[in-house]
C-alpha cells in the first residue's frame, strides 16, 4: 500500500463540512424525534448536495464526509450513511428503470432507503439468512397480495391503500408511529411513486416475468419501518448457503410488508420487518438471481471503511473535548493537563485516533484503486477504528468525570453512539475472522531465515 496524504482541497472541504454540520445540520437534528427518521435533516443533506455525492464519489470521499459530519453531528452522519447503504445496491446493480425510479429521490432527500440483511437468527452469519422467496406459480397463494395491488390501482375494487396490510403487533412499514402515512405525498400525487411526476409502477405493480412471495422476518434494520424502499436479501435456493441468496428492491407499499420500531441504547431509527407473502418479480431483482450475497458483500466492502471513518470522527470529537477540558480544569494546584498520568492518557488517545484514521484512509484508497486486498483492508479499518473510538470516548469520559455522564453532555451522547459500530456491518469478531481468512488465503510466506535445530 503506497503512502498518501490529503490534498489541500480535501482538507478545506472537510473543514467546510464540519462547519455545515454544526451550523445547518445540528439544529435540525436537535428538532428530530429520537428513534425515528428525521426527514427534514435528510432533505437538508440533499439540498447541500451531499447525498448526490454518495453516487459520484469514491470510498475516500465517503470516508471524509462521514468523519467530518460525525465530528459535529452524529445524527447527520448516520442519516447520510443509511441513505448510501440502502441505495448503493440500486446504484451498482439496479436496472436502468430501478435507478431512474429511486436514485434521484434518494439524492434529493425525498425518499428514504434501507438495507435489510440481518435477521433474528442470522446477524453476523449473513449467509444463513432464512427469509424465503418462494416461487409464485399463480395458483392462488398470492391472491391476497394481488387483490391489494388491484385495490391500489382501482380503489373501487377493494379497500383503500392505506388500510391494506395491517397486522396485530405491527404496522405497515410505510406508516408513522402516530398512524399517519409516512409518505403521504405518494397519495396526494407529490412523490416519487406518482406516475404524473415521472415515477413508474415499480413501487406498486409487480408484473415482471418471474414472481416470488417473500415470507419471513428481518431485524435490526436501520430506517425501518419508516423507509420508502428496502434492499432485501432473501433465499431463492434452499440449502445453497451464500450461493442461494437474491437481492430484491422492495418498496414500502408492497402488501404484506409490516414493521415495528425498536428502542435502542442510542436513539436511532431502527426496527424489524415482517414479510407475509410479499409479492416481488424479476423486475425487482438487483443483480442476478442467487447472486445476492455478492451484492451484499460488495456494498459492505465499500461501507466498512466508512464505518471506521464515522468512528474516527467521534474519537476526534472526544479528543478535542478532552484537550479543552484538561487545559482549563484546575486540579491539585495546577491544570489537569500538567498531571503526567493525564497527559500520557491524552497522548495515547491521540496516537490511536491518528493510527485509525490512516488505516481508514488506506482501506478507502485500496477500494478506489481496485486493489486486490480490499476485504482485508476494509475489515482492518473497521475493526481498528471502532475499537479505538470506544477506547477514546471511554477515556474522555473518565478524564471529564461525572459531568460527562449528565444527560445532554457531548460525551454522554458519544458514549451511547460509539457502542453500536463495533457490532453492525460485521461485529469485531467477524472482522478478525475475515482478516485471518484473507491472510491465510494468500501465498505462503517464504522463510528467509529458517529456524535452526
List the helices and strands and how they pair.
Layout: H1 8-31, H2 39-47, H3 50-53, H4 59-72, H5 74-93, H6 96-107, E1 113-116, E2 132-135, H7 143-153, E3 171-172, H8 184-187, E4 211-222, E5 229-235, E6 245-251, E7 257-261, E8 270-281, E9 285-286, H9 292-328, E10 330-331, E11 334-335, H10 340-368, H11 374-400, H12 410-417, H13 428-441
Parallel strand pairs: 1-5
Antiparallel strand pairs: 2-4, 3-7, 4-8, 5-6, 6-9, 7-8, 10-11
Helix pairs in contact: 1-2, 1-4, 4-5, 4-9, 4-10, 5-6, 5-9, 9-10, 9-11, 10-11, 11-12, 11-13
Biased composition (Basic and acidic residues): 171-191
InterPro entries: Acyl-CoA_DH_CS, Acyl-CoA_Oxase/DH_mid-dom, Acyl-CoA_Oxase/DH_mid-dom_sf, AcylCo_DH-like_C, AcylCo_DH/oxidase_C, AcylCoA_DH/ox_N, AcylCoA_DH/ox_N_sf, AcylCoA_DH/oxidase_NM_dom_sf
Region (Disordered): 133-208
Amino acid at each position: 500500500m503506497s503512502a498518501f496524504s490529503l490534498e489541500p482541497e480535501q482538507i478545506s472541504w472537510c473543514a467546510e463540512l464540519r462547519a455545515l454540520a454544526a451550523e445547518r445540520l445540528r439544529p435540525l437534528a436537535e428538532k428530530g424525534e429520537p428513534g425515528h427518521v428525521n426527514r427534514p435533516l435528510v432533505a437538508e443533506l440533499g439540498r447541500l448536495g451531499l447525498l448526490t455525492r454518495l453516487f459520484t464519489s469514491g470510498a475516500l470521499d465517503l470516508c471524509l464526509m462521514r468523519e467530518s459530519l460525525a465530528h459535529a453531528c452524529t445524527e447527520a452522519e448516520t442519516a447520510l450513511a443509511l441513505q448510501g447503504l440502502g441505495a448503493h445496491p440500486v446504484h451498482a446493480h439496479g436496472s436502468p428503470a430501478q435507478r431512474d425510479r429511486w436514485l434521484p429521490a434518494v439524492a434529493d432527500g425525498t425518499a428514504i432507503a434501507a438495507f435489510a440483511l440481518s435477521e433474528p437468527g442470522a446477524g453476523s452469519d449473513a449467509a444463513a439468512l432464512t427469509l424465503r422467496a418462494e416461487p409464485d406459480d399463480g395458483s392462488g397463494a398470492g391472491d391476497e397480495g394481488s387483490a391489494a395491488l388491484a385495490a391500489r390501482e382501482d380503489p373501487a375494487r377493494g379497500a383503500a391503500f392505506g388500510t391494506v396490510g395491517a397486522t396485530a403487533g405491527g404496522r405497515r412499514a410505510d406508516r408513522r408511529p402516530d398512524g399517519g402515512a409516512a409518505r403521504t405525498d405518494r397519495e396526494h400525487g407529490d412523490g416519487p411513486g406518482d406516475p404524473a411526476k415521472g415515477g413508474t409502477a415499480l413501487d406498486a405493480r409487480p408484473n415482471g416475468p418471474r414472481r416470488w412471495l417473500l415470507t419471513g422476518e428481518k431485524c435490526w434494520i436501520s430506517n425501518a419501518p419508516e423507509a420508502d424502499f428496502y434492499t432485501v436479501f432473501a433465499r431463492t435456493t434452499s440449502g445453497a448457503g451464500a450461493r442461494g441468496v437474491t437481492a430484491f428492491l422492495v418498496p414500502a407499499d408492497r402488501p404484506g410488508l409490516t414493521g415495528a420500531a425498536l428502542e435502542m441504547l442510542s436513539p436511532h431509527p431502527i426496527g424489524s420487518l415482517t414479510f407475509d407473502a410479499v409479492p416481488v418479480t424479476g423486475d425487482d431483482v438487483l443483480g442476478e438471481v442467487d447472486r445476492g450475497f455478492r451484492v451484499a458483500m460488495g456494498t459492505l466492502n465499500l461501507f466498512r471503511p466508512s464505518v471506521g471513518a464515522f468512528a474516527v470522527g467521534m474519537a476526534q470529537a472526544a479528543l478535542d473535548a478532552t484537550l479543552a477540558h484538561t487545559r482549563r480544569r484546575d486540579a491539585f494546584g495546577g491544570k489537569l493537563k500538567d498531571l503526567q498520568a493525564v497527559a500520557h492518557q491524552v497522548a495515547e488517545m491521540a496516537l490511536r485516533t491518528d493510527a485509525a484514521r490512516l488505516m481508514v484512509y488506506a482501506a478507502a484508497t485500496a477500494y478506489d484503486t481496485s486493489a486486490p486486498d480490499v476485504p482485508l483492508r476494509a475489515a482492518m479499518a473497521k475493526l481498528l477504528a471502532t475499537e479505538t473510538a470506544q477506547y477514546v470516548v471511554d477515556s474522555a469520559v473518565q478524564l471529564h468525570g461525572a459531568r460527562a455522564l449528565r444527560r445532554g453532555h457531548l460525551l454522554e451522547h458519544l458514549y451511547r453512539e460509539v457502542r453500536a459500530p463495533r457490532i453492525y456491518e460485521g461485529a469485531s469478531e467477524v472482522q478478525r475472522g475475515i482478516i485471518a481468512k484473507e491472510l491465510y488465503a494468500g501465498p505462503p510466506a517464504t522463510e528467509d531465515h529458517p529456524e535452526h535445530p
